[in-house]
Amino acid sequence: MKGVTRDTLSLPAGSLEGGSDPELLSVAFLGGDGFPTHSSGRKVYNLRANMVQVMGSSSGTMSTCRTSTLVSKVNHPHLPMFRYEFSFVFTFIIALFTASLQQYLEKAQQAKAQREEATVMAALHSATQDMTNVARGIASPAILVVTHFPLGSFWALPEMFLASWIWGMAVILCCVFWFLLGRRRRQQGEPPLENGFLPYLGCALKFGANPLEFLKEKQKKHGHIFTCHVAGKYIHFLTDPFSYHALMRQGKHLDWKKFHFATSAKAFGHGSIDPAEGNTTENFHQTFIRTLQGNALDALIEAMMENLQYVMLQSRAPKLQSNTWVTEGLYTFCCQVMFESGFLTLFGKEFNSNNDKNLSSKQETERAHILNALENFKEFDKIFPALVAGLPIHLFKSAHSAREKLGEALLHKNLLKRDNLSELVTLRMFLNDTLSTFDDMEKAKTHVAVLWASQANTIPATFWTLFYLLKSPEAMRAATKEVQSVLETDEESISLDGKHISLNRKQLDNMPILDSIIKEAMRLSSASMTFRVAKEDFTLHLENDFYNIRKDDIVALYPQLLHFDPEIYADPLTFKYNRFLNEKGEEKTDFYRNGRKLKYYYMPFGTGIAKCPGRLFAVHEIKQFLALIFSYFEIELVDSNVKCPSLDQSRAGLGILQPSNDIDFRYRMKCL
Ligand code: HEM
């Protein structure tokens, strides 16, 4: 679906899966019993950052080798089979081989330093043993994976040592060929080129490990534009914010849809939504603008206000009784409240009438269904970066099943049983039925894409906003005061007698302090990326230079560079709640670099034609969430000195980053 996936797509290639432990990397080649097996008994698993472990179970030996090349994040508990991922295996082999060589040299050097001939011999002998183990460890899964051929008997032969070396040499030869013939060469007029050392992956692993640091380093080396080879693609990064405008102006040479279409189909599993391919004639971008902005936004805000209060108060009533503190993870809380309310707002409610006698039991069933959908959403979302990087979903069994279940819940026949569907979903159902040739499941999957787009960034953005507020008493005071004053001006009384607070769009628009707080929280946590694909060879004219770009290359912006630029934002890593307010307390729009006013200084929602169509709704939802929290609850961190969690980089390029760990907080109802 056009752009339902972000056009802020990172290519964290090698970033096979996100997860809770940012350090843990796990890659394996599975046999039928769930562990990597081979008749030689080799097993390969558990890669930690910068570390590769190769374990030979039959001999009981284990060698652990350092490598700086394998730095991707793979946190999946179930180790998938990469039988068809030749490129990955190829890289893996090289990494292991490099690692073993490095270890060999280190050991030899150590021994030499001691100047003891005997030790040298012993060290070399032991290192040779290690290399043998490594090489065998490499070759076994490689053969298993690439050929899927039962070569067990071969490995049982004493010649296995020799065979491992033959494999190693073959790999090295391939690398040499690739190095000589397969690498792209920079041509005249093209930006400086970074090919990276790995065939196919290029700089992907380094980029995926920490895009911001990687890009800063390359910017220092090459200047404001350079090309990186990342997972088979050539990406021209523009790092000078004064050039962003030039990129937007040259839209006729650049395509922003193709990439979205392909990625959406890949990640969500529907057929191509590119009208050129004939499955549908829907203009998705128009549908989104029409149903998420303008008059449609008022209805969304109204529904969200009601649903947030239902989820925060009614559905949590058992927890909130007796005025005692409830302790929870802040991310878990934001996730549940925003997902449940957002789901109800877009996809309506299951039950029909408020007078229904069994209303409360129906509400409970409905709630269970939505929480179940949330679990499926989380399971699927975990591997989203891997899908964007191009891995097939079949490698991730539980995520695949989660996506299918989400699809089933959003089948048209099920949606038709729900009340208060949003205009967005109603129109999309109509257009699916009239303009597309999709089957029922494919139609449902286009709704899964909408669900993902509406939640995946909003949840972490809500978390960061509330977290920074809890850490900054000054910001909390200013925000609470602003909300109170808007509610008082409109004589809105806060009570628990079932009458809900209502804040309409106009009231919410009149909250510049909350606006500034949300912007600042997103500036600190957003790592979106804007992509455009070259439709043909053309010359990219920037402010003072021009560069030749080849057809199918990607031109990309990485706004986090801008958001963390100390020239634009003084003390960029510090949360300043009033950073986006001017002296009059209104929205600040003048930001400077090198004394020049910037047009582009804040871009968590992307920019240009493909800018997020849901951005207004997103900011309103977060404001509503905060206004209700301030109105109904007392809230504090369990440990007021808790450190700010780090950003989980596995999602870099895809939007707002999640925290790498949850933070405990407590809340209780105010005595109203
Ligand atoms: C804090 C929350 C959000 C952030 C940071 C965010 C960010 C983004 C970004 C960066 C893009 C890609 C823009 C580009 O290509 O330049 C995007 C696209 C999109 N977003 Fe959001 N978004 C958020 C919330 C929402 C919500 C709440 C909705 C819907 C209810 C939504 C719906 C969409 C859709 C449908 C697209 C694809 C648009 C297209 O390509 O036609 N987003 N979003």
Protein architecture, described:
By secondary structure, the chain is an alpha+beta fold. It has two domains: 24-72 and 84-179, no CATH class; 266-669, Cytochrome P450 (Cytochrome p450), CATH 1.10.630.10. It contains 24 helices and 20 strands. The strands form seven sheets. It has a six-stranded mixed β-sheet. A three-stranded antiparallel β-sheet has the order 2-4-5, with helices on one face. Helix 10 runs parallel beside helix 24 (615-632) and helix 19 (458-471) packs across helix 24 (615-632). The longest helix is centred in the first third of the chain and has 31 residues, at 117-147. It is globular, with a radius of gyration of 27 Å. Residues 2-4, 6-8, 260, 284-285, 288, 292, 453-454, 457-458, 461, 528, 530, 604-607, 610-614, 617-618, 655-656 line the site of protoporphyrin IX containing FE. Its EC number is 1.14.14.23. Heme binds at residue 612. Its cofactor is heme. Residues 94-121 form a coiled coil. This is cholesterol 7alpha-monooxygenase.
Entry keywords:
24 helices, 2 domains, disordered N terminus, six-stranded mixed sheet, microsome, 672 residues, binds protoporphyrin IX containing FE, alpha+beta, three-stranded antiparallel sheet
